[in-house]
From TrEMBL:
Chromatin reader that specifically recognizes and binds histone H3.3 trimethylated at 'Lys-36' (H3.3K36me3) and regulates RNA polymerase II elongation. Does not bind other histone H3 subtypes (H3.1 or H3.2). Colocalizes with highly expressed genes and functions as a transcription corepressor by modulating RNA polymerase II at the elongation stage. Binds non-specifically to dsDNA. Acts as a tumor-suppressor by repressing a transcriptional program essential for tumor cell growth. SUPFAM superfamilies: Bromodomain, FYVE/PHD zinc finger, HIT/MYND zinc finger-like, Tudor/PWWP/MBT. One of its GO terms (cellular component) is chromosome. Homooligomer; forms homooligomers via its C-terminus. Interacts with histone H3.3 trimethylated at 'Lys-36' (H3.3K36me3). Interacts (via MYND-type zinc finger) with NCOR1. Interacts (via MYND-type zinc finger) with MGA protein (via PXLXP motif). Interacts (via MYND-type zinc finger) with EZH2. Interacts with EMSY and E2F6. Interacts with PIAS1 and UBE2I. The lineage of its organism: Eukaryota, Metazoa, Chordata, Craniata, Vertebrata. Residues 100-148 form the PHD-type domain. The gene is ZMYND11. This is Zinc finger MYND domain-containing protein 11. InterPro entries: Bromodomain (IPR001487), Bromodomain-like_sf (IPR036427), MYND_ZMYND11_ZMYD8 (IPR057053), PWWP_BS69 (IPR047268), PWWP_dom (IPR000313), SAMD1-like_WH (IPR048589), Zinc_finger_PHD-type_CS (IPR019786), ZMY11 (IPR047269). It comes from Macaca nemestrina. Pfam families: Bromodomain, MYND_ZMYND11_ZMYD8, PWWP, SAMD1_WH, ZMYND11_CC. Residues 596-631 form the MYND-type domain.
Length: 635
């Protein structure tokens, strides 16, 4: 029965900040009470005290923080009971729950709808109208479970495609793995219900555990879900996970668009772009802005836009307006194209593609050839059983005449070679012995009755030399009475043998060519992997060297700055002392002088106890103005 329930209410980022605050306060041998936690959150994270109190109470309700009464043992609150907070440790029973605590779409807590088939939960507002709950009494399935149930595909084929996507995910998840080492945090499983990472996804792909592409996409979304919950929606790790999920969705869309193009563009065999797809892509002349018409394949159409992939060296993709698209049958002279070297190579590739299309040459992967290989192996096993049945009576007849003529028996069972190349194509090659045996088995059974019991019938032909099939047939017919009896057949046997010889010669030549191409591709793959590994190691060493050099340079700069600051400070203090001494001397000298009462210049004429003048003019001006009424000099 579907129901809405509040799994959790506290914000995941606030919970981790509260955990850090409690841990730091406890490490200082103090009680993690509300006052200390509030001060820490305000000082470090800028959180308002009311918000801190609210998040703390919600975390206690969610069971992510434990509230206890603790008696103080020192300070002003010694012996007084206080409310203290602890991290939930191993001593607290933590039962594994069946469902997640946070919405799988927005990654936030609140009132969620629980899926009846999986661990995922959703907010009602985060669901589209198609997936919203209609009847609370009936079971409810989340969008992921419904999408997984809808589609089914071949697991082996799907595994081949998903390996390409996982390899790209590993390349893009390098930064996430470097910045995501906190997954071993002891409180990680308190927030993350179902842990997953790129190596886990790769292991599931290799083991063939995915039943559909939607299930693989759900694991990629789960990786994003866990990253946002543990590191925060605005963190650098969350940005990397979003980009990873977006790229994965794009790869899956490309896979659904055309599986042949997806496989060939990743496997990259020779002339991979020339092989026709099933169904075939429409061939057109497409014109980008600023360029001329170019041959291209139509991938999809949407409104007035056409998604094309161009022939040529880079095989680029572009959305082209439909008015810039011309059918491939249009006369090239009407397009007025510039016949550059790249355009000519693209046209050559187009001609090769059209030739493959006329000849019906399609690329076959391992999964497509598996049915043919199984049928061929069943035919080989049947021929081996027939060979055993025909050899047993011949051996018994031969033993009766062992005293007449000694005979050498050579046991050469039919052999076959299976060779699997990198792209998954399987070839079966029969040895010359098995070919001759199959030829002898194809003869009618009544001929065996025409041979007398006194004749010597060898169980197997003599050791095989490196000669053609026709030469071996002549040797066997000359050394065996049974072969002499067969010489009475019509000339149609010779024609059949010639056809068989041509057929198997062609098989060996094809096998040789394929082995060469497989060896070339394998060599290129090994070289490419070695180069990528070497490049990644060099990049890592370069990054470490740069980080070390930057750290050393930063330390050297800090040391130099500190020395310069100390030196400047010492020089400043010395200069201040010197100036203070000079000023003191100047003040002392100034105090020892007398100054004109009228113009404040240095005085040289004394009048009375506090009055002096620099000149007679100043004395007369000041005397008539006011000094004659206040002068205390005795006359």
């Amino acid at each position: 029965m579907a129901r809405l329930t509040k799994r959790r209410q506290a914000d995941t980022k606030a919970i981790q900040h509260l955990w850090a605050a409690i841990e730091i306060i406890r490490n200082q041998k103090q009680i993690a009470n509300i006052d200390r936690i509030t001060k820490y959150m305000s000082r470090v994270h800028g959180m308002h005290p009311k918000e801190t109190t609210r998040q703390l109470s919600l975390a206690v309700k969610d069971g992510l923080i434990v509230e206890t009464l603790t008696v103080g043992c020192k300070g002003s609150k010694a012996g007084i009971e206080q409310e203290g907070y602890w991290l939930p440790g191993d001593e607290i029973d933590w039962e594994t729950e069946n469902h997640d605590w946070y919405c799988f779409e927005c990654h936030l807590p609140g009132e969620v709808l629980i899926c009846d088939l999986c661990f995922r939960v959703y907010h009602s507002k985060c669901l589209s109208d198609e997936f919203r709950l209609r009847d609370s009494s009936s079971p409810w399935q989340c969008p992921v479970c419904r999408s997984i149930k809808k589609k089914n595909t071949n697991k082996q084929e799907m595994g081949t495609y998903l390996r390409f996507i996982v390899s790209r995910m590993k390349e893009r998840a390098i930064d996430l793995n470097k910045k995501g080492k906190d997954s071993k945090h002891p409180m990680y499983r308190r927030l993350v219900h179902s842990a997953v990472d790129v190596p886990t996804i790769q292991e599931k792909v290799n083991e063939g555990k995915y039943r559909s592409y939607e299930e693989f996409k759900a694991d990629a979304q789960l990786l994003l879900h866990n990253t946002v919950i543990f590191y925060g929606a605005d963190s650098e790790q969350a940005d990397i996970a979003r980009m990873l999920y977006k790229d994965t969705c794009h790869e899956l869309d490309e896979l659904q668009l055309c599986k042949n193009c997806f496989y060939l563009s990743n496997a990259r065999p020779d002339n991979w772009f020339c092989y026709p797809c099933i169904p075939n892509h429409e061939l057109v002349w497409a014109k980008m802005k600023g360029f001329g018409f170019w041959p291209a394949k139509v991938m999809q159409k949407e409104d007035n836009q056409v998604d094309v992939r161009f022939f040529g060296h880079h095989h680029q993709r572009a959305w082209i307006p439909s008015e810039n698209i011309q059918d491939i049958t249009v006369n090239i002279h009407r397009l007025h194209v510039k016949r550059s070297m790249g355009w000519k190579k693209a046209c050559d590739e187009l001609e090769l593609h059209q030739r493959f299309l006329r000849e019906g040459r399609f690329w076959k992967s391992k999964n497509e050839d598996r049915g043919e290989e199984e049928a061929e192996s069943s035919i080989s096993s049947t021929s081996n059983e027939q060979l055993k049945v025909t050899q047993e009576p011949r051996a018994k007849k031969g033993r009766r005449n062992q005293s007449v003529e000694p005979k050498k028996e050579v046991s050469c069972p039919p052999r076959s070679i299976q060779v699997a190349n990198e792209t998954g194509t399987i070839f079966r090659v029969f040895s010359e012995t098995s070919l001759l045996t199959s030829l002898s088995l194809s003869e009618p059974e009544p001929e065996t009755e025409a041979v007398s019991s006194s004749q010597e019938i060898p169980t197997m032909p003599q050791p095989i030399e490196k000669v053609s099939v026709s030469t071996q047939t002549k040797k066997l017919s000359a050394s065996s009475p049974r072969m002499l009896h067969r010489s009475t057949q019509t000339t149609s046997d010779g024609v059949c043998q010639s056809m068989c010889h041509d057929k198997y010669t062609k098989i060996f030549n094809d096998f040789k060519d394929r082995m060469k191409s497989d060896h070339k591709r394998e060599t290129e793959r090994v070289v490419r992997e070695a180069l990528e590994k070497l490049r990644s190691e060099m990049e890592e060493e370069k990054r470490q060297a740069v980080n070390k050099a930057v750290a050393n340079m930063q330390g050297e700069m800090d040391r130099k700055c500190k020395q310069v600051k100390e030196k400047c400070k010492e020089e400043f203090v010395e200069e201040i002392k010197k100036l203070a001494t000079q000023h003191k001397q100047l003040i002392s000298q100034t105090k020892k002088k007398q100054w004109c009462y009228n113009c404040e210049e240095e005085a040289m004429y004394h009048c009375c106890w506090n009055t002096s003048y620099c000149s007679i003019k100043c004395q007369q001006e000041h005397w008539h103005a006011e000094h004659k009424r206040t002068c205390r000099r005795k006359r």
